[in-house]
Design a protein that fits this description.
alpha+beta, 3 helices, Rubrerythrin, domain 2, binds zinc ion
């Protein structure tokens, strides 16, 4: 009950000011997860590649693999699917 009043108040204050965008970005970042096994950065609760639920939520540096078939880096890191990958998991 307390929670819903809080949410209502928050919604009201969001309509009042223009900080909506910043808040949404924060939520997006919180939803982002990194698979500890294949280091893929994704949104959700399960890794779309290996279906692992052993996830981290912080990382340092990332690489974007667009064409894993022709990427030397992807071969070196044993990446077979395109996507964003974390270099170091926190
Ligand atoms: Zn994975």
């Amino acid at each position: 009950m307390k929670e819903s009043i809080k949410n209502q108040r928050r919604k009201k204050s969001e309509n009042w000011n223009n900080f909506n965008f910043g808040r949404k970005l924060e939520v997006f970042d919180k939803m982002r997860k990194i698979c500890k096994k294949c280091k893929l950065i994704f949104k959700g609760t399960e890794c779309p590649i290996c279906h692992s639920t052993n996830l981290a939520d912080g990382f340092r540096g990332k690489i974007i693999i667009i064409d894993p078939e022709n990427s030397e880096l992807a071969k070196k890191l044993n990446i077979k699917q395109k996507g964003e990958y974390a270099i170091k998991i926190k």
